[in-house]
Amino acid sequence: MTVRKATDEDAGTLAALAARLWPGHETAELAGEFAGLVNSGEAACFLAWEDDRAVGFAQCQLRHDYVEGTKTSPVGYLEGIFVEEPFRRNGCARRLLAACEMWAKELGCAEFASDCELDNADSLRFHLAVGFDEANRVICFRKDL
Q1: Contact of 64 with 80, CB cutoff 8 Å
Q2: Which terminal CB of the chain, N or C, has fewer other CB atoms within 10 Å?
Q3: Is the pLDDT assigned to residue 81 strictly greater than 80?
Q4: Is the pTM above the cut of 0.90?
Q5: In whole angstroms, what is the distance from residue 38 CA to residue 143 CA?
Q6: Can you give the residue ranges of every domain in the chain?
Q7: Is the pLDDT of residue 142 over 80?
Q8: Which CATH architecture has domain 2-129?
Q9: CA–CA separation, 66 and 83 (whole Å)
Q10: For residue 139, is pLDDT > 90?
């Protein structure tokens, strides 16, 4: 398995994987977003490949505003990570995360952060297993006006 930084040509591949992580989004919409992200100095995407098949991705970016539990700015931030089911539990997500962390470190970040939904037990287990410390738990509210 290899991990490499995504390029313009990978926007569709990223979008197809991301649509599985974020099923409420259209692949075409995500492809446009990823096309912008891979050319941004503030973001990076990485793909995991098994032979000639993309089996996972990670999206990270710099956050300059306050990030819960951090003391520095900017902070590298894991925006999303996904690995196809047959390729899970073999280090693929760890390698994708390591690529994101290295990218952020090369840009001068001293901290790296992430989040997950309160009810996403799999994501919580992953984050704790790869060395994240839980910084806070938040329930967000909204109402119509």
Answers
A1: no
A2: C
A3: yes
A4: yes
A5: 35
A6: 2-129
A7: no
A8: 3-Layer(aba) Sandwich (3.40)
A9: 29
A10: no
